[in-house]
Amino acid sequence: MKLQMTAFVFLAGLVFAPASAFAATLGLQTEAPTLTVGAAVIDYIEFAPDGDLSTVAAEVDDASGVLPDGFTTIDFGVGFSLFDPTDGADPAFAGFLDVIDESGQFLAGDLTAIGFTEDVIELQFNNLSGTGAGAFGTSVLMLVTFDDPLGINPFAGLFDGDALGASISIASVQAVTPIPLPGALPLLGAGLGVLVILRRRRTASSRSLSL
């Protein structure tokens, strides 16, 4: 009985372990163009059971592969469930990205996915628009890297009313190129199919002879 209780507690710990024990990276590969903010303030507010992260007018101090018009800033806001910030099906899951230069809207997008690694929150945006959107393709990945250590799950280190220093980078998400099958594979498959048919015919022939 004692062993059964121990096993139950162990399994319950695995099932209900806090999300802070694991990373949940989106695993996306990125490429130029990129936009970088060296110093931003990220505001965090809780509306239990939901949370909200945002920044306003974070100044872009480096751009690679694109040329925004003059002074450029980034605004973003994302809402999420406190229980599971990565749950895209939760009603609280929503967000926007706005990059504004001196000519107007340079880049905008809608939140499509949230991930995280140690001290970093990953935000993916699609439905891109703006004068610079064409250079970024169909999707961008924003990395919010906090100045202070928040742990392997940064969401677990946030407290209502926080104003946290961070850097921000935005980059185009690499398109996934399908890996072509070697040319010999279709021929090999056809050959195996022929062998199966011949074997079935031989089996049927052997049975008819034995009768």
Give a summary of the structure in a few sentences.
This protein is α+β, with helices and mostly antiparallel strands. It is built from 3 helices and 9 strands, in the order αβββββββαββα.
What does this entry look like structurally?
- The protein is 21% helix and 43% strand.
- With 211 residues, the chain is α+β, with helices and mostly antiparallel strands.
- A hairpin with a 2-residue loop joins strand 6 and strand 7.
- The chain is globular and about 80 Å long.
Features of this protein?
9 strands, 211 residues, alpha+beta, globular, eight-stranded antiparallel β-barrel, single chain, 21% helix
Measured as a percent range, the helix fraction is 10-25%
* Biggest β-sheet strands, sense, barrel: 8 strands, antiparallel, barrel
Tell me the overall shape.
globular
Order of helices and strands: HEEEEEEEHEEH
Distance between the termini: 62 Å
Number of domains: 1
Task: Outline the low-pLDDT stretches.
Answer: 5-20
- Describe the strand arrangement of the main beta sheet, using strand numbers: 1-2-4-5-6-7-8-9
Number of strands: 9
Residue share in β-strands = 35-45%
Number of helices: 3
pLDDT averaged residue by residue? 85
In terms of structural class, how would the helical and strand content be classed?
alpha+beta
Using only CA atoms, what is the Rg? 26 Å
